[in-house]
Amino acid sequence: MKKLLLSLPITAALLLGACGETAVEKVEKSDAPAAAEQPKKDEAKKDEVFKVGDVVKINDIEYKIKSATLGNGSQYIEPKSGKVLTLSIEVHNKSESKTFVSSGEFNLYKGDDQAESYFGSGDKTLMGDLNKGKKTTGVVEFDVAGPGTYELIYTPSFSLDNKEVKWNIKVK
After folding, report:
1. What angle do CA 156, 157, 162 make, to 5 degrees?
2. Are 29 and 20 in contact (CB under 8 A)?
3. The domain spanning residue 122 has which CATH number?
4. Which domain holds residue 122?
5. Is 147 inside any structural domain?
């Protein structure tokens, strides 16, 4: 009981310290030399929708969906809807502190219908602490009916403003 009482204030302080307003911007890759600095990138519009391959910066953390592939799932856990959509996501922590990344911050929709998460492939799930200046790549998987256009929505866990970042995911 004593441990619980001591850990609650510490946990609350960490959560509140990580909370703040979410800044979202698309990162443009440029071949221009560093001396010819581009003007500072504008903050992404609230309704801007990204696509596979775009690098999106959210509070000094860069997210890139490297690929979106359809598969049959594992031989032991068959997807209920028929197929598994696997998203390979690279995360680069450019902030000054450790951050937590989780596949649970992502939701997938086809129209208004939410897809269920799939946890059967054994691939490296996107989850865990990421130290400052480091990168990781992991997968987020969903149980889907098949090919089509899906909407992936990311909502940062430690944000007070509940901003959402959206990607259109087209798979064949």
Report:
1. 60
2. no
3. 2.60.40.1240
4. 21-28+45-171
5. yes
The SS3 of residue 5 is helix
CB 22 within 8 A of CB 59: yes
Cα–Cα dist 31/13, whole Å: 42
Question: What pLDDT is recorded for position 107?
Answer: 98
| 66-77 residues labelled b (16+ CB within 10 A) or e (exposed) | eebeeeebeeee
Is there a domain that residue 14 lies in? no
| 1 inside domain | no
**Do 91 and 62 contact (CB within 8 A), yes or no?**
yes
Q: What is the tens place of the pLDDT at every residue in 13-29?
A: 444 344 445 566 677 66
What pTM does this model have? 0.75
For the chain, state the CA radius of gyration: 18
Is residue 85 one of the residues assigned to a domain?
Answer: yes
What's the domain count of the chain?
A: 1
- Distance between CA 79 and CA 50 in Å, rounded? 27
In the beta sheet, which residues pair with residue 65? 89
pLDDT digits (tens, 9 = 90+) for 92-107: 999 999 999 999 999 9
Categorize the per-residue pLDDT at 46 as very low, low, confident or very high, splitting at 50, 70 and 90: low
Q: In what order do the strands lie in the sheet with 49-51?
A: 49-51, 165-171, 148-154, 106-110, 113-114
Q: Mapping DSSP to helix (H, G, I), strand (E, B) and coil, where does residue 133 land?
A: coil
